[in-house]
Amino acid sequence: MTEVSTILGGEDKVEKAILQLVQRCQPEIIGLCTTGLTETRGDDMKRLIKDIRHRYPELNQLLIVLVSTPDFKGTLQDGFAAVVESIVKEIPQKVEQCCPQQITLLASSAFTPGDIQEIKDIIATFGLQAIAIPDLSALLDSHVAHTSSHITASGTTVTQLRAIANSAFTIALGESMRGAAKILKQKFSTPYAVFGELTGLDATDKFLQALADISGNSVPEKYRR
After folding, report:
1. Whole-angstrom Cα distance, residue 71 to residue 109?
2. What are phi and psi of 4, to 5 degrees?
3. Which residue spans of the chain are classified as CATH 3.40.50.1980?
4. Which of 27, 61, 98, 139 yields a CA-CA distance of 20 to 30 A from 18?
5. What is the mean pLDDT of each run of 10 residues along the chain (225 residues)?
């Protein structure tokens, strides 16, 4: 939405954009982030989404994650964290017992795709499976699902997002992820640990020790060395 359409009223454009995305891409989830003008106007975005679903009942199964990310408040990491918090607040569903080998990995905006891939690999060596939010690990070298689509084929699926309710533990990377970890703790009683950084021997030792404690396995020789 442009500034003019937002100021003059752009609800119809949001509706049109959602309908076009559904028609062209058949997404399972759509993220809807505000830019500041929405907050300034006082638009009721929750009501808008509700009205759209009422007019188009076929959209009731589509996940639409609404996040307030005004450009006049906070920093990049604050908006990034707000998105993660909205995801863990709205999507996970407790449908079965806890999965002892599954953990949730919340990664802040400071971590690159290469970082996420390496961290997932480290976690896997402890016999644990990490569901990353977000999972950027294959972002730079992934293939698009269709030649006419700009949507990448990699990343955390909606099924996995729902399944984090059954994770045995939450690891939050970056202090800005503490809020999302607390939400999972409150909703599903999932214990968590926050690592402000993974730089240096002390921080790395604490991270590896935490993985050993969670998994019940000793730190692999590769990392002890």
Report:
1. 16
2. -65, -45
3. 3-73, 99-224
4. 139
5. 64 86 88 82 85 90 90 90 94 83 95 93 96 87 58 82 94 96 95 94 96 96 91
Task: From the options 2.130.10.10, 3.40.50.1980, 3.40.50.2000, 3.30.750.24, give the CATH code of 3-73.
Answer: 3.40.50.1980
- Before 27, cis peptide (omega within 30)? no
Q: With CA atoms as reference, report the closest residue to 31 among 134, 142, 149.
A: 134
pTM over 0.85: yes
Structure tokens at 157: 């699926």
Beta-carbon contacts of residue 217 (< 8 Å; ≥ 6 apart) = 126, 127
Q: Enter the DSSP assignment of 144.
A: B
Helix (H) and strand (E) counts in the chain: 10, 6
What is the bridge-based pairing of β-strands 167-173 and 129-133? unpaired
Coil vs helix vs strand at 63: strand
